[in-house]
Amino acid sequence: MGRSMRLMSIVLMLGISAAACSRGGSQSVTDNAFPLVASRWTNAAWLEDVRRGFAAYEARDAAGAEAALAAAWKRGCRDSLVAYRYAFVLERKQDTSRAKALYLEAAGLLAKEYPGHPYVREVWHNLGHIEYRAERFDEALTLYRKAIDTGKQATPEMAFSMGMALRRMKRYAEAIGWFEKADLSDFRTNFYMADVYYELKKFDLAMQAMERAVKADPRSAKALGSLAHFWYALSERREESGDFDAAQDAIRQSVGMYGRAIAAGGTNYIEYRKAAEARVRDLERLRAAARTNGLTRIPAAE
User: Fold this and answer.
1) Exposure string for 254-275, b = 16+ CB within 10 A, e = fewer
2) Fewer Cβ close by (within 10 Å): the C or N end of the chain?
3) Centroid of chain to Cα 236
4) pLDDT tens across 257-289, in order?
5) Burial letters for 87-122: b for 16+ Cβ neighbours within 10 Å, e otherwise?
6) What are the counts of helices (DSSP H) followed by strands (DSSP E) for the chain?
7) What is this structure's pTM?
8) pLDDT tens profile 110-152
9) Rounded Cα distance, 102 and 100, in Å
């Protein structure tokens, strides 16, 4: 009846996998970065460029930050904290080779010049992101571990990054362990946990994770549509087990979720909703036939 559970599973996994990406590197909130640099280089000719660059950085003005920090670098600045921020801006502009070189330059000096600063760890984390986006997941994992080992424990962001790399390497059980150390109220954590639980065939846990993702972002068409797929597949499993009423309840949930996904802008779910609505009608006919024959449950297939 309707689309097969196998087909729906394939569609679901393709939809989630297309969304996979690592989070970006950490951009520190407004802090005392410029005073730290100024205290080390009181009379440097490039100090005013750094001040302007850091102000633009904090304002998320990538073009302004790049121009000012490039000017400082041209004037001879080689401060490791400046190098980190310059690399971060270049990375966001997808100038990966220059960003990677600057991160590595900063990594060799940050612990010495600014001991205890968060960037001492984050530089390795961001280098890991560069490898992740290049789909070099083994290298990304090594760099994420280095970021974690540089401190006392993983931050939630680092735990998420570990989970994402392990997920792409199909090391699903390990990925779940790291996702559980990430921010469990965060949309992306729950979205990708659902993906991994589905791969592990832990369908109930997958659905619970996707429900948390929807709760975190009720306007995410992708999460709403994915949850609708889960309800559709659950309807098929319940039908196969012979539980007619539960199958009908699940497919109605699916129809509703597809409707929410469409309302959130997911027009690609219109055809899925039509299929789910057709399944509602099919199940109604089966229920009528079952009642005619005095049955309360659909017999399991022989």
Assistant:
1) bbbbbbbbbebebeebeebbeb
2) C
3) 29
4) 999 999 999 999 999 999 999 999 999 888 777
5) bbbbbbeeeeeebbebbebbbebbbebbeebbbbbb
6) 16, 0
7) 0.84
8) 999 999 999 999 999 999 999 999 999 999 999 999 999 999 8
9) 5
Block residue for tokens 């001040």: 51
Q: How long, in residues, is the chain?
A: 302
Q: Which amino acid is at 105?
A: E
Amino acid at 149: D
Give the integer Cα–Cα distance in Å for 185 and 261.
Answer: 21
How many other C-beta atoms are found inside a 10 Å radius of the C-beta of residue 189? 26
Residues 6+ away with beta carbon under 8 Å from 97: none
Distance CA 88, CA 184 (A): 26
Q: Put residue 24 in one of left, alpha, beta given phi > 0 → left and psi -120 to 50 → alpha.
A: beta
CB-CB contact of 298 with 290 (8 Å): yes
Domains and CATH numbers, the chain: 218-293 (1.20.58)
Q: Which two tokens stand for residue 286?
A: 């089966």
